[in-house]
Q: What sequence folds into this?
């Protein structure tokens, strides 16, 4: 294996931020122009559903590919595919008569690229960043991602106000961001580590990957917690616009403030772990997620906009801390030959249940309104208790069998 000798890698840090900024800006423009052209959100729902299926399918195979081939080449190829997809669909798209075909095609291309580039980039980090520097690197990276989520809507709103760009222009901006990301990844000095996984076939590689994870309770715990919190994160994102429209006068500015607080909380969580000197520990995940559950319970029982605003910030803070810590724990506990498959399984758990959670909580929110936050907080507390109980029993049973 290539030894990690640096605590920082600027291209590996900036590339995800730039591509995320372009993608979020494009989605902002897509949502605006599609609803403006069609008068409803039906086409957006179709696009999101197709994208979810593509991501789920990609998660099944990405780990095998990442562990069997050069990870830098996978990331570079995925970014190049996204560049070409944006250019081709920009040429195909008629901004004056928006149709589904080019947008659905681009969604498939971008989500295929994302399904392979994200786990490959995460798997490169332990090979390029020292053990002591990993949590800080992951924290800075996630902070930049949250910053992109804040900047993109502000930049997009400014561009719309100036009437400079149509949907094709937003698409070309996205393509430019992928081009810059492609060049940054290309500049990284990386040599593929040698390992036995490169000699395995697809079926055997999948089976050995799942077996590897199953033998390690801490990795299973991270996967299950990741699936749980991401389902509930999606549910919270559904409740926020509902509350604004039904309880707080339908003011779009108030909804924007909630999203900004969610992202600002994420940035503060990233800053916290950037400054942290201790190694990540599983107990810290339970403490942060318990705090998140408490914030949701208070906001659900006390229907007040300012309470909801604070709860959004706290939830974003706790979610960011867990996400950064979970990625770092995964990188530290997983052997290099299995990193791709491990991240594939982790993202599979997230992508598999999040759409189902959104579907279910969409109906629950219509039924119980702001009290949905109480249900979400309660489910988070119950889930944490059950997962921790299962983990302790599994550890105890394995000790007894030794």
A:
């Amino acid at each position: 294996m290539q030894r990690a000798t640096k605590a920082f890698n600027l291209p590996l840090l900036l590339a995800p931020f730039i591509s995320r900024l372009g993608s979020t800006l494009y989605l902002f423009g897509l949502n605006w122009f599609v609803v403006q052209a069609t008068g409803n959100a039906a086409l957006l729902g179709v696009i999101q559903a197709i994208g979810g299926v593509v991501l789920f399918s990609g998660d099944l195979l990405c780990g095998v590919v990442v562990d069997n081939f050069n990870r830098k080449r996978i990331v570079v190829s995925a970014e190049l595919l996204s560049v070409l997809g944006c250019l081709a669909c920009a040429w195909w798209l008629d901004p004056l008569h928006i149709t589904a075909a080019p947008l659905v095609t681009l969604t498939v291309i971008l989500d295929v690229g994302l399904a392979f580039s994200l786990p490959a980039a995460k798997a490169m980090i332990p090979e390029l960043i020292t053990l002591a520097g990993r949590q800080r690197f992951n924290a800075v990276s996630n902070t930049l991602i949250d910053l992109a989520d804040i900047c993109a809507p502000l930049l997009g709103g400014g561009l719309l106000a100036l009437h400079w760009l149509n949907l094709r222009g937003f698409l070309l901006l996205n393509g430019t961001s992928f081009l810059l990301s492609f060049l940054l990844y290309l500049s990284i000095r990386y040599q593929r580590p040698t390992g036995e996984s490169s000699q395995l076939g697809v079926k055997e590689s999948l089976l050995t990957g799942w077996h590897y994870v199953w033998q390690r309770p801490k990795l299973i715990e991270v996967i299950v917690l990741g699936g749980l919190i991401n389902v509930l994160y999606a549910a919270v994102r559904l409740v926020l616009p509902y509350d604004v429209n039904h309880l707080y006068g339908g003011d779009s500015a108030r909804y924007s403030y909630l999203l900004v607080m969610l992202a600002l909380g994420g940035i503060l969580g990233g800053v916290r772990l950037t400054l942290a000197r201790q190694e990540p520990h599983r107990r810290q995940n339970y403490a942060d997620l318990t705090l998140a559950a408490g914030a949701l319970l208070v906001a659900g029982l006390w229907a007040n906009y300012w309470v909801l605003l604070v709860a959004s910030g706290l939830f974003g803070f706790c979610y960011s801390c867990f996400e950064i810590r979970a990625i770092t724990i995964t990188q530290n506990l997983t052997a290099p030959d299995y990193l791709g498959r491990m991240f594939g399984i982790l993202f599979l758990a997230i992508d598999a249940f999040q759409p189902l959670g959104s579907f279910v909580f969409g109906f629950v929110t219509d039924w119980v309104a702001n009290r949905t936050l109480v249900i979400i907080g309660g489910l988070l507390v119950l889930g944490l208790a059950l997962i921790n109980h299962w983990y302790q029993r599994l550890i105890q049973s394995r000790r007894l069998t030794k």
Notes: The chain has 13 helices and no strands. The two ends are 31 Å apart (CA to CA). Residues 222 and 326 are 6 Å apart (CA to CA).
